[in-house]
């Protein structure tokens, strides 16, 4: 186990007076889907200029009451994280690299002119809400508790400036597979009308606004029979960056992996980083270098490129089968899951579910 950040005193706990019944809960988690159902409790804390962070507690998950002039509703000063709790082979609950989520949350906070939260508070809130609602763990294949820490400006004021009050919350959603029907490979739509991020923008922050801006492109993708959007860089409209919520990898016929380099416009995925490490542990070469859309098409046609996959906490490792760019389409490999993609996915989930040695101390037990 990695050294844990110094534990805080336990958060104040207000247990739910009327938890969902065992039968009802069993019913809801039998086919959870993704992000549709939620557990009984949440964690919360408040920051203001006078007191800093305070009032950290675990409470029943209830609707928030907010004033119509609350600034987040107008100016979208909001950041979030996405992480999962797994049930390991020995029956314990475990988090995967949670400290990385805490660090990235604070990096997002800095970019959005929001206060940083002590890593220990972030981690303790996550651990305690998961421990409180552990009986919501779905037993379905690929099941996990998806954890959503987030923070927003809660000032009641329409002036545009950093707020003097923020709220931090952690909610938990029992989930199965991200893509309904667990497709063997997804189809991507190359966005030529929209970009996700530009240099100097907010692309490397996990902020809600990035997602708001991506929905129209996602609708275009669905209209064209695709599952997800692949974005190109904003300047040359040439370099492949990532999907709306997942990073991308390319597998060459000599077994090397290529993934676009981080550089301000790409979200630094923890899954991306973990897969780079796992691949290098296996002796594979991983190059973080720019890869053009025209090269991708040419390499897929010539056979130099044999596989492509997307990755992230929500979707784990998802093979890319087809890429549609305007009226042209190209197929990746056989159009189904590639061998190396499958192997890396298996290596990753075996570590997450405690079935394989945890060489890098990535797994932290809760309980
Ligand atoms: C969250 C996210 C990812 C994946 O990050 P993980 O840490 O692997 O879950 C990739 N791209 C975008 C745009 C994201 O928001």
Automatic annotation (TrEMBL):
Domain of life: Bacteria
Modified-residue entries (N6-(pyridoxal phosphate)lysine), positions: 206
One record GO biological process: L-valine biosynthetic process
PROSITE patterns: AA_TRANSFER_CLASS_4
Pathway: Amino-acid biosynthesis; L-valine biosynthesis; L-valine from pyruvate: step 4/4; Amino-acid biosynthesis; L-leucine biosynthesis; L-leucine from 3-methyl-2-oxobutanoate: step 4/4; Amino-acid biosynthesis; L-isoleucine biosynthesis; L-isoleucine from 2-oxobutanoate: step 4/4
Record-listed E.C. numbers: 2.6.1.42
SUPFAM superfamilies reported in the protein's UniProt record: D-aminoacid aminotransferase-like PLP-dependent enzymes
InterPro entries per UniProt: Aminotrans_IV, Aminotrans_IV_CS, Aminotransferase-like, B_amino_transII, BCAT-like_C, BCAT-like_N, BCAT_family
Cofactor(s) the record lists: pyridoxal 5'-phosphate
Enzyme class: transferase
Reaction(s) catalysed (UniProt annotation): L-valine + 2-oxoglutarate = 3-methyl-2-oxobutanoate + L-glutamate; L-leucine + 2-oxoglutarate = 4-methyl-2-oxopentanoate + L-glutamate; L-isoleucine + 2-oxoglutarate = (S)-3-methyl-2-oxopentanoate + L-glutamate
Keywords, comma-separated and alphabetical: Amino-acid biosynthesis, Aminotransferase, Branched-chain amino acid biosynthesis, Pyridoxal phosphate, Transferase
Any GO molecular function: L-valine-2-oxoglutarate transaminase activity
UniProt cross-references to PANTHER family, sorted A to Z: BRANCHED-CHAIN-AMINO-ACID AMINOTRANSFERASE (PTHR11825:SF44), SUBGROUP IIII AMINOTRANSFERASE (PTHR11825)
Role according to the record: Acts on leucine, isoleucine and valine.
Matches recorded under NCBIfam families: ilvE_II, PRK13357.1
Family: Belongs to the class-IV pyridoxal-phosphate-dependent aminotransferase family.
Name this protein carries in UniProt: Branched-chain-amino-acid aminotransferase
């Amino acid at each position: 186990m990695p050294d844990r950040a110094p534990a805080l005193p336990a958060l104040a706990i207000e247990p739910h007076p009327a938890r969902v019944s065992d039968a009802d809960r069993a019913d809801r988690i039998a086919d959870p889907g993704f992000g549709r159902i939620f557990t009984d409790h949440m964690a919360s804390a408040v920051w203001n200029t006078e007191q800093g962070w305070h009032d950290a507690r675990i409470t029943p998950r209830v609707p928030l009451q907010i004033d119509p002039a609350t600034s987040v509703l107008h100016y979208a000063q909001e950041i979030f994280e996405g992480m999962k709790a797994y049930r390991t082979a020995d029956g314990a609950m475990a988090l995967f690299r949670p400290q990385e989520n805490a660090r990235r949350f604070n990096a997002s906070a800095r970019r959005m002119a929001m206060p940083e939260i002590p890593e220990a508070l972030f981690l303790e809130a996550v651990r305690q809400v998961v421990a409180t609602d552990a009986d919501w763990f779905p037993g379905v294949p690929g099941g996990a508790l998806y954890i959503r820490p987030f923070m927003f400006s809660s000032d009641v004021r329409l002036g545009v400036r950093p707020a003097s009050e923020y709220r931090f919350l952690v909610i938990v959603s029992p989930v199965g597979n991200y893509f309904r029907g667990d497709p063997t490979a997804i189809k991507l739509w190359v966005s030529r009308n929209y970009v996700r991020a530009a240099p100097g923008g907010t692309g490397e922050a996990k902020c809600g606004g990035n997602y708001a801006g991506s929905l129209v492109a996602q609708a275009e993708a669905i209209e064209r029979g695709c599952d997800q959007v692949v974005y190109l860089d904003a300047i040359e409209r040439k370099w492949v960056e990532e999907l709306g919520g997942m990073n991308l990898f390319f597998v060459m016929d000599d077994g090397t992996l290529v993934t676009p380099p981080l550089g301000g416009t790409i979200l630094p995925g923890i899954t991306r980083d973990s897969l780079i490490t796992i691949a290098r542990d296996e002796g594979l070469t991983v190059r973080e270098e720019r890869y053009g859309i025209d090269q991708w098409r040419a390499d897929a046609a010539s056979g130099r490129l044999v596989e492509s996959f997307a990755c992230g906490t929500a979707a784990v490792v998802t093979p890319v089968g087809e890429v549609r760019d305007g009226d042209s389409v190209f197929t990746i490999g056989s159009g189904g899951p590639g061998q190396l993609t499958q192997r890396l996915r298996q290596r990753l989930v075996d570590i997450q579910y405690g079935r394989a040695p945890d060489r890098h101390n990535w797994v932290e037990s809760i309980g």
